[in-house]
Design goal:
Length: 199
């Protein structure tokens, strides 16, 4: 027989354990500092290349991935980056390119969470699209950063000639090298079919 205090204690311990796994705040404060954001995530482990990988820094072996970053969807972006690295056979050869409205604010969080990550940040000027977003679009899509991917060629350095773009709510369950290896032939863009839509 379990004592009267055992059930609340077990529940309390379970709640503490779940809180220890992810310590991000449940609300977003517009004035939260970069230090508070960085303290929201635990440091990820160092993901190292497997056998047969080119040495880190080999430009010919680099896999470039672009994502947008903002405070609203930061949890999803962190989970996405973690899933890419976790399933990659050569994680040290992956270079992330983050597009953000306020890169200075988000850089400390990325550095604290992924200290071994190879990445660059680019400022996306929301004024580029602010007057061009239709009022009939779904409210979830009316944020200017959702359209930053259209400007990738203008934001990235000319040395990046190929890139994979991942939404911030994506979780990867396989090695991105397989996707990177797909030959596009004469096509400039590859995309998955979306709900049988014909774009």
């Amino acid at each position: 027989m379990v004592g009267d205090g055992a059930v609340p204690l077990l529940l309390h311990l379970a709640l503490l354990a779940s809180a220890a796994l992810f310590t991000a705040p449940t609300t977003t404060c517009a004035n939260a500092g970069a230090a508070a954001l960085a303290a929201s995530f635990r440091e990820a482990p160092a993901f190292r290349n497997g056998r047969g990988c080119a040495p880190p820094g080999d430009r010919a072996a680099a896999i470039h991935i672009a994502m947008t970053l903002d405070t609203t969807y930061l949890r999803g972006s962190v989970a996405g980056v973690f899933s890419v690295l976790r399933h990659a056979s050569c994680p040290e050869n992956i270079v992330f390119h983050f597009l953000a409205s306020s890169p200075r604010r988000l850089r400390p969080t990325v550095l604290a969470t992924f200290p071994y990550l190879s990445f660059r940040m680019y400022r996306f000027d929301a004024a580029l699209v602010r007057g061009k977003i239709s009022s009939s679009v779904r409210p979830a899509l009316d944020q200017p950063l959702n359209y930053a991917r259209i400007y990738l060629a203008d934001l990235l350095p000319p040395s990046v000639v190929r890139i994979l773009y991942f939404d911030s709510d994506l979780v990867v369950v396989d090695d991105v090298a397989k996707l990177w290896a797909i030959h596009l032939g004469p096509h400039l863009l590859g995309a998955p079919e979306y709900c049988h839509a014909n774009f």
